[in-house]
Fold this protein.
Amino acid sequence: MSNFPLVSALVTGVAAAALVAANPAASSIASTTASTTASTVSEDCPVSEYAMGIRYQQSAHSAAAQLQSWSVAEARLKKLVAGRRGHGEQLAVVSDLDETVLDNSALLARDLEACHTYTTWDTWSDWEVRGTPSLTPGAADFFEYADRHGVAIYYVSDRFEENKESTLATLRGLGLPQVVPGQVLLYGPSKEERRAVAEAEHKVVLLLGDSLPDFHDDFDGATAGEQEELVARHAGHFGRDWIMFPNATYGSWRKAPLEAWEQPLTLP
Ligand SMILES: [Mg+2]
């Protein structure tokens, strides 16, 4: 990525909309205010453990990782576009939305401040309709490049189909290209089936996501151990045709057992 006007999007925008790989649920949220630090979360709140993940997601460290992911994606796409010339191939990229293109951390922080367990996803639908997500830093440049070079863009997300008009409006409002109903494929069929829609008419050259099922259905429903094995098996894809984005706020890893050093704790 050659320029970083997007960092400002990260610094100013704290909001966004995301959808869990597993598919959240519905209901109501009210505010759209950003820039919460989660510092007001009570230690008595049973979900206060979520604060650390949100702090990371809203940190410059996360922004740097997002920039890195988009930069790798764009470098890969440039090579593919250069190699395409003269062959008439119709290239496409398939991108997840939430916590890949869109930053939804403001919703999660708002819920946490109210000591609400956002992983019940009962505030999500309202966010899809009324929320004000921001782009992750680097996203705008990547999609502008893809669009300018005739690469088809498919947005494959587990956002609610019944909120599709709102999601289309959100994406258009953020200036993303190729936001048309046929290229924004929401929750219903598996992500594999929706990726097949893009593959029917294009050569899909890049998959982008923050959750492993964004890349292959084998990850969906797999245990933590199975996912680990699958990541090792598919290691050659990452950073090449599969581009992973950081998301410390939710995911199928959330309740995975910890792997601890077996030595008993001894204090000096
Ligand atoms: Mg996502």
